[in-house]
Design a protein that fits this description.
With 182 residues, this protein is α/β, with parallel strands linked by helices. It has 6 helices and 6 strands; from the N terminus they run H-E-H-E-H-E-H-E-H-E-E-H. Strand 1, helix 2 and strand 2 form a beta-alpha-beta unit. The longest helix is centred in the C-terminal third of the chain and has 27 residues. The protein starts with a helix and ends in a 6-residue tail after the last helix. InterPro entries: Formyl_transf_N, Formyl_transf_N_sf, GART, GART_AS.
Length: 182
């Protein structure tokens, strides 16, 4: 999220951050956004119990109230219902710390190391109803080095994420607005 915010401050960036939303009131990203002068809203999922639909309707209301046109998930670790995914179809992006379609879900770095892969990376994709199954918009690759642990690999992948996600989001926003970059 911080990389997306930083990129949005550049004069050539085609998007601006309208609001930062978290389902956890104590999320560090909310503090970072506030320090950048951005609007923030916590829609605490615990207040909704098991009613995921009501929670997502509250999130959708915040997105709509802030005039959001494209949603960029960053560190949002809850599965979304078909209703919210459908409402934002083609306009909701996510970043995942693997080279999808390899290793959807959790523990991606440990799984890549255990498989003996030569490289890992990250993927920006459109969000669909399936977990980490949406159309791929961009990927970045990093080598898996001898002696890598899930933590050391995660650090290198995170650096790649901070470069990839703002670039892919910018290009997606340009396409949404009918502007192509030559």
């Amino acid at each position: 999220m911080g990389a997306l915010v930083a990129a949005s401050l550049r004069p050539d960036c085609p998007y601006r951050v309208a609001v930062v939303i978290s389902n956890r009131p104590d999320a560090a990203g909310l503090d970072l956004a506030r320090s950048a002068g951005l609007p923030t809203v916590a829609v605490d999922h615990t207040a909704f119990g098991k009613d995921r639909a009501a929670h997502e309707q509250a999130i959708d209301a915040v997105l709509t109230a802030h005039g959001v046109q494209v949603v960029a998930l960053a560190g949002y670790m809850r599965l979304l219902t078909p209703w919210l995914v459908g409402r934002w179809a083609g306009r909701m992006l996510n970043i995942h710390p693997s080279l999808l379609p390899l290793y959807p879900g959790l523990d991606t770095h440990a799984r890549a190391i255990a498989a003996g892969d030569a490289e890992a990376g990250c993927t920006v994709h459109l969000v669909t109803e399936g977990v980490d199954e949406g159309p791929i918009l961009g990927q970045a690759r990093v080598p898996i080095l001898a002696g890598d642990t899930p933590d050391t690999l995660a650090a290198r992948v995170r650096t790649a994420e901070h470069d990839l996600y703002p670039r892919v989001l910018a290009e997606h926003c340009r396409q949404q607005n009918g502007v192509s970059r030559n």
